[in-house]
Amino acid sequence: MTTYFQAEQRDYLNSAGLRNLRRAGRLPGIVFGKQAANRMIHISTIQLQKWMKLGASGFIELRFEGQDAVTVLLEDFQRDPVTRELLHVDFQQVQTGTVLRTKIPLKFKGTPIGTKQGAVVQIQRAFIEVEALPGHLPTSVEFDISGMEPGASIQVKDAVFSPDVTVISDEKEMLLSVVKP
User: Fold this and answer.
1) Integer distance in angstroms from the first to the last C-alpha of the chain?
2) Is 126 within 8 Å of 169 (Cβ atoms)?
3) CA angle (52, 90, 133) in 5-degree steps
4) pTM of this prediction?
5) 138-148 in b/e burial notation, b at 16+ Cβ within 10 A?
6) Which residue from 42, 47, 75, 178 could staple onto 114, CB 3.0 to 4.6 Å apart?
7) 3-class DSSP state for residue 55?
């Protein structure tokens, strides 16, 4: 499913200009891609926050007034370390027919049975880095963790992808573990 955001081009702004833009409810960002020039933009902060609360995965279509829409993926965002407010967002432009390297978000379902025995769930990674053509990219990777006992863990190699997806993250990288405190 594609999400749509109304976006506007922006000129270079100093820190005071960016602060005024944020006060007006707009989030500064940038769109970058392999065969495209970087574009400085701004979008609605509230719309992006709502989308992030719903799971924040999949393609986004940025619509510019009087121009063609641009399909992108959320690559990164920055938050204020104290207030946790969004400060900036980075989007990677999707080009059909070009292999894309991106981070696929992880979703964990359930509560491990080990937590009833006093164990604690530790999430080490929130994403797996992969490469694939845009049409083959999954929107997220889901794990059912409800049957996990203390001492159990999930690594990158436990994720299942189609043969069209190349995993870049190290297969031994830890994603989640259930440990005794």
Assistant:
1) 40
2) no
3) 85
4) 0.70
5) beebebebeeb
6) 178
7) coil
Contact indicator for 7, 40 with CB cutoff of 8 Å: no
Domain chopping of the chain, boundaries: 3-95, 101-179
Could you list the pLDDT tens digit for every one of the 181 residues in the chain? 578 899 999 988 898 999 999 999 999 999 998 878 899 999 999 999 988 887 766 788 899 988 888 888 888 889 999 999 999 999 988 887 788 888 888 889 998 888 888 889 999 998 899 998 888 888 888 999 998 899 999 999 999 998 999 999 999 999 999 998 7
Report how far residue 95's alpha carbon sits from residue 45's, in angstroms, rounded to the nearest whole number: 25
Sheet holding 100-109, edge to edge: 141-144, 100-109, 127-132, 166-167
**CATH class of the 101-179 domain in this structure:** mainly beta
Copy the structure tokens of residue 163: 């043969």
* Coil, helix or strand at residue 115: helix
Fold of the domain spanning 3-95: Ribosomal Protein L25; Chain P (2.40.240)
**Which residue carries 């999430």 as its tokens?**
123
